[in-house]
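re: ur question from yesterday

yeah so i grabbed the chain u mentioned. its 216 aa long if i counted rite. heres the sequnce exactly as i have it in my notes:
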Amino acid sequence: MALRKRIKRTLHLMSEGKILKYASVRCGILSECIKPVEEYLDSKKIHYTRLIDPDLYLLETVGASMYESGSFLGVVEVKTDLSRTFYLLESDVPMDLGGIPGLEFTLAFRVRKKEGLYELFRIIGEGKIGGIRHKHRSTLNFLISLLGGVVFSSVMELGSYLMGFLSTISFALIVYLILDYPFSLLYFKGVEVVSTQSHEEKVLIVKIKRPNDRGI
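ran it thru and got these structure tokens back, copy pasting raw so excuse formatting
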């Protein structure tokens, strides 16, 4: 029975994966940010492990061990110019990190392999996530890569429309992979970057009054 559950869990992780949310918090003095962040996590009843200025090996090891934990994982990085504190989160229900005080931006990842989670924590530990490019990564990468493809096609002055179109797409894809580094490498490790934005749907209700209906 235990073996069957383990096999079922492994197949589920390979197909669906786990969602890991990353939240970046910037502050001037670390001690002033820790308390509000922990109060927020406690109010949401989110279990966390705190690591203050961990070395890369510790962050990778502790982070990768979370793969067998809750269905939903999270990382809150509180950073100043001199130091960093990480909160490693785990939960059986989706986590809302949008209300954390001092929040810069959030990213969400779908992790299908444990080695992918290890690689993701290595990238986080090396400080390769941050800046305006990662805040608006999808829009910036697409626009720059598309522009680069158009310029490349114009410079080459290809006579065939089909060849020009294929060259533009190919060059745009290469530029996109370069711009999206290191996230582009995570795809080969079983980690996918997913959207964190919520979309609200508005429903318009139209009431049609027939001639014989009385006004209300």
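noticed a couple things. Strands lie at 18-26, 47-52, 72-79, 84-91, 103-111, 191-194. also Residues 2-128+186-194 form one domain.
anyway ttyl
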